[in-house]
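Quick one before lunch.
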Amino acid sequence: MWWLLLIMCLQLILDCMQQALNMHCAYDFTVGWAGDMNPSSRTDFVSLTLTGQGSGIYNNSKQWTRQSCWRKWKLLSRLQRNLILFTVALMLVCGIATNPSVTEHFRGLAVVAKEEGDHALKPVIHEVQPELDKLNRPLVPESPSEKQKRAAHKRGPPGLQNRLQKKGNVSDTQVEKEEGEKPLVNWRVAMIDQATERRTAKEAANKVDVPEVEQEGHSHKEPEVDRLEAVRDAFRHAWKGYKEFAWGKDELRPMSKSYGEWFGLGLTLIDALDTMWILNLKKEFEEAKTWVSTELSFDKDVDVNLFESTIRILGGLLSTYHLTGDTLFLDKAKDIGTRLMPAFNTPSKIPYSDVNIGKGTAHPPRWTSDSTVAEVTSIQLEFRELSRLTQDTRYQAAVDEVMQKVHKLEGKQDGLVPMFINTNSGQFTHLGMFTLGARADSYYEYLLKQWIQGGKKETALLEDYLQALEGVKKNLLKKSSPNRLTFVGELSHGRFSPKMDHLVCFLPGTLALGAHHGLPAEHMELAKQLMETCYQMYAQMETGLSPEIVHFNMHEGSIGDVDVKLADRHNLLRPETVESLFYLYRFTKDRKYRDWGWEILQNFNKYTKVSTGGYTSINNVRDPEYPSPRDKMESFFLGETLKYFYLLFSDDPELLSLDKYVFNTEAHPLPIWPTAQ
Ligand code: DMJ
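Model of the 1-deoxymannojirimycin complex:
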């Protein structure tokens, strides 16, 4: 098309020139394609011969040429001159336009303009996709360079892409760096959306006193978010999954829509009984009760862990009996309590960790004859209560003996106990290691709670508790940098480690409970400080959920207070922080504790809720894009976590008054014994 136009223009110019030059110029113009005439000599050319003024004499003088051309130009009409100028300009433009590099440049600009116009949603270059197999993998493996090319085309902020590639293999510093990088333009909207979402969540969390909102000329107060109903919803959702995929089994596996067995005793169902009663979920409670009365049997050849089955099953049945008055639960409690008693048949009377409740035999774990200190000293509330209810003293006698022995043992440091005790010798083992986390935690909790349960008469328990707190202050309590958060670390053969388990977050609640029951006011001050720390363990994580273990920074100039190792980034839906928030709110009425709890509940909903029912533990609280579900809903999520949320948000101080009830370490409320006893 362009070429046709060009030829026409040239023709026109030549016509004009012929006219203009007339006698002055002669031309021989041949459009050569002589093929027809002479097949042997094909000539694809245009020849233009301009000769001198009829004389045939060639004058090579430049000046002559310039002058004569100028004269000739002047002789042309205006129309002719304009036509020539137009044609030259046109040829210039055509020449530029057909240059390949220039074409590419302009095409690129056009693409960018189009992308921006479409919000960059449509890819411009359609790649040829490799054929995929059934698992969506390319049938032909891609070369590294192809992979690189595809990665370059992959949409998403650089940080996200890198995180996905390096998942499970990044340090905190790397994550922070990536987060500092500039996101690609087309992701900005999504990122802002997330930020707005987070802000909205924060606003919702503070929605207790909602400002008046003007709408279409009407002023109205937005309804307060019903936090109690939100907890009931969460419970119903968890229960839906359990009922559908794990009914009567120990634990729901919500991702695979299946279940896991530990003891084979309907652990989640029993752990959740009193929660349903407290949350007034009558229908759910009734169907669970029917299962207990018709299906639950402890006459089974199965090994159970003494501590876990005591706090979850015995504790759950006893508290449900107290709340409902239904003797079905007391009978079941007596049955399991009796079946657990063989655990105390040891040379030292320090119980074994495991019991076969069908055979009536007990044993320590396969690899040791040790038991865990927290386990043998956190079964007392339940067995003591069982004795009180049944008037059978054997239960209480067995657990009291354990406490008396531990009270006298060597190997403590300022009231702090080691983590293991030998069932043969009755002595502590692995001396020199002290923690308020795993394997020792509830020893301290039960010292105080037994003292409260028994009417504050058993002074040895109180002494051990007070002494242990001094030991904590002296050996384990430190401040982090830069924000001076108070935390409880660990001691290993005189060496301090700034490591703190999430489990330690029971401590603010226990300290507050002690202060409420008349112990020094400074316990409450420490409780408040530790409560702030436990909240920060959630707030400083990208998901707003705490990891299992944190390490606090103590060096001046640290950037953040909390560091989390790769192996410690999981969250098991544990209750300790929510538990402590409940105590702190009950005793101080400071609404910030409720707001913190509300934030945590929302983050559980955001990152652990499984759409088909249930909640799941997660592997990585630092990755909100992919927290990596573990496919397990622990029974304590229903037994403890959701119950403490509900009690935290309830305005009724008489709902399980802390002057009448003491909660076991699995959140099952047991009555404080009347003083007459
Ligand atoms: C529960 O079984 C109990 O709270 C126990 O004391 C510690 N571990 C879990 C919850 O985290």
